[in-house]
Specification:
Layout (H helix, E strand, L loop, with lengths): L1 H4 L20 E11 L2 E10 L5 E8 L3 H18 L4 E4 L5 E10 L2 E10 L2 E10 L6 H19 L1
Antiparallel strand pairs: 1-2, 2-3, 3-7, 4-5, 5-6, 6-7
Length: about 160
């Protein structure tokens, strides 16, 4: 059963590398395991040296693929209502995915990719200057890399 196997997984190995982000200057700034009660996962932050572009990512491992999809869909419902002016669309990433674009606050644009792949539910939040947003194509490409890595590591 995947849930019992999840704690034996090195969650740090589930996160993409900075080179998987097809934009210049990104480096991995932090990776930390997440353990809250029965929830196991990992949180990572990537960014540029000047701090103008960031990617915050959280991967949560759930008991099965259905639970991962349900968690992702719940995040979509909650997030959509918290991001006025944003647009939501499905994208071909992992088992299921939604991209939320067009959310701006304090001169920053956020593009959020929520996806499920097997037992993993993933949130990837790309932040950049409002005048130089990270394109949906780049966000989707990074999500595909993440989903492929999860499939390879978790089955």
């Amino acid at each position: 059963m995947p849930a019992s196997a999840a704690p034996s997984v090195d969650v740090g190995q589930l996160v993409i590398q900075a080179g998987d982000i097809p934009l210049p200057g990104f480096s991995r700034q932090s990776v930390r395991p997440v353990t809250e009660g029965p929830v196991t996962g990992v949180a990572a932050v990537f960014g540029t040296a000047d701090g103008t572009r960031l990617l915050g990512e959280t991967i949560v491992l759930l008991p099965d693929a259905a639970a991962a999809r349900t968690a992702m869909q719940g995040a979509v419902s909650t997030t959509g209502s918290q991001r006025p002016g944003s647009t939501t669309a499905t994208v071909p990433v992992g088992d299921s995915a939604v991209i939320i674009t067009g959310y701006r606050v304090d001169g920053t644009e956020s593009t959020l990719l929520l996806l499920s792949q097997g037992v993993a539910s993933v949130a990837m939040d790309f932040r950049s200057p409002e005048t130089d947003p990270i394109s949906a194509d780049v966000v989707t490409a990074v999500g595909v890399k993440q989903a492929e890595l999860l499939k390879a590591k978790l089955g």
